[in-house]
Every structure is written in structure tokens, then in C-alpha cells.
Design brief:
Blueprint (H helix, E strand, L loop, with lengths): L10 E5 L3 H8 L1 H4 L4 E4 L13 E4 L5 H14 L6 E4 L13 E4 L6 H4 L5 E3 L12 H4 L5 E4 L5 E6 L25 E6 L6 E5 L3 H7 L3 H15 L1
Parallel strand pairs: 1-2, 1-3, 3-4, 4-10
Antiparallel strand pairs: 5-7, 6-8, 8-9, 9-10
């Protein structure tokens, strides 16, 4: 039997210990990937040096996220490394070259059939071999602007009418006219590391046990990080 001589990538799951983070770590499919449990409140400079890839879990505690942001950005300076930043992580506050505008959320648009303007884009890009429509079309929490060299993968289309749509908290959730309105992008040029950023909070919904598309995205991102 032939065996590979390339060792598997060492993946760190950086989290702040919320119930959905811990549930994700206990998922047998995640356990089988030998993902390392990296508790962000204890993360120090150099604490990611032993890893080849990092999954930044959704909804890190804001105070902890601010403290470890330099550690995450420093990891991106490593040639050949990979990072996925899950949603609801305020990337506009700490990730160089990216800004974020918060948007509302229609949680069930994918079930009731509302077209909120979400579109797969640049579908000829090789990264789409790692994605699927189901994995990225459930919901989002913001729109991103990013370095011009990055490739948008999912975006909101410009609104077709002047009528806005708001969630139960009064936050509008359709595209902002004239904005990039990116929901997920891939960037292999801004940093030595490869980077994927999303405003979809996959590990939150996976660990909370609802939104099946979120589980699809989480598994696919872990698969990419481990390649």
C-alpha cells in the first residue's frame, strides 16, 4: 500500500470557550481531523508557531479578540500557512486591508425563498472546487471591503428596488449601493499566508445545532485548512 510522505497540516481551532465552540470541538468529524484546541484567553505571542493552519472560530469574545489580534496577524506572515476567519469577528477592526459594515440577518430566507441578493461570484476560481452553494447560502452578518487582489466568492447583488428590508432588530440586510458587498473572499496575495474571510458564522450555528449549510461550510473549511 502506498503512503503519503507529506505530513498532514496541523490545524489550530482558536476559540473563547463558548458552548458552540466546545460542541464543535467534540464533533466526531472534527475530532477525526486531530484539530488542536487553542483557548484564546491563554494564547500568547508565538502561540501559533507549531501550527500550519488556523480556524478562527466565530464570535470570539471581543476583549479577547482584541488582545490576540496581533498574534493572528503575525501568523499570516508565514509563507505556506492558511487561515479561515469565521463570521462575527469584527475583522474591520483588526485585519489589515479589510473593512466591514454590519448588516441585519434574515435567518430563514433560505427556507422561505426570499431573494436577499446573495450570489456566488467568480465561480470559475479554483477555490470553488472546495465550496458548494449549500455551504455558503444560508445567511450573513455584514458586508466586507477588502484588498483589490482578493477574490470575492460570495457577494450581495445591488438592490433592485429602493425598498430596504430590515430584520426584527431594525437592521437592514440587503446590499449597500456602491459597496463591494462581499460576504466571503479568498486572498493569496496580501499576506504570505492564504486567507479566507467570511461574515457567515459557521462554527456558531454548527455548534448550536441549527442551520445545516453552516455545517457544510465548517467541514469544507477544515478540509481546506488540512490539505
Amino acid at each position: 500500500m502506498k503512503t503519503s510522505t507529506t505530513p498532514p497540516r496541523r490545524i489550530a481551532f482558536v476559540h473563547t470557550g463558548s458552548h458552540f465552540h466546545l460542541a464543535t470541538l467534540k464533533d466526531p468529524a472534527v475530532v477525526a481531523l486531530d484539530v488542536a484546541d487553542v483557548y484564546a484567553p491563554e494564547l500568547q505571542p508565538g502561540g501559533l508557531d507549531d501550527y500550519d493552519a488556523v480556524y478562527v472560530a466565530a464570535r470570539l469574545h471581543p476583549a479577547v479578540r482584541r488582545r490576540i489580534a496581533p498574534v493572528l496577524v503575525d501568523f499570516l506572515s508565514r509563507d505556506g500557512a492558511r487561515m479561515y476567519v469565521d463570521g462575527e469577528n469584527g475583522v474591520g477592526d483588526w485585519l489589515p486591508g479589510t473593512t466591514e459594515v454590519r448588516r441585519g440577518t434574515n435567518f430563514w430566507a433560505w427556507r422561505v425563498g426570499e431573494d436577499v441578493g446573495r450570489r456566488s461570484v467568480n465561480t470559475d476560481h479554483p477555490f470553488w472546487r472546495r465550496l458548494s452553494g449549500r455551504a455558503v447560502h444560508w445567511h450573513y452578518h455584514g458586508v466586507l471591503d477588502h484588498p483589490a487582489v482578493a477574490t470575492p466568492l460570495v457577494a450581495l447583488a445591488d438592490p433592485q428596488s429602493e425598498h430596504s428590508a430590515a430584520d426584527p432588530w431594525g437592521l437592514e440586510y440587503r446590499a449597500i449601493p456602491g459597496h463591494r458587498n462581499t460576504l466571503m473572499y479568498y486572498d493569496e496575495q496580501t499576506f504570505p499566508a492564504e486567507l479566507v474571510v467570511s461574515t457567515m458564522d459557521a462554527s456558531y450555528h454548527h455548534g448550536s445545532g441549527f442551520m445545516p449549510g453552516a455545517s457544510q461550510l465548517l467541514y469544507r473549511m477544515f478540509r481546506w485548512l488540512g490539505e
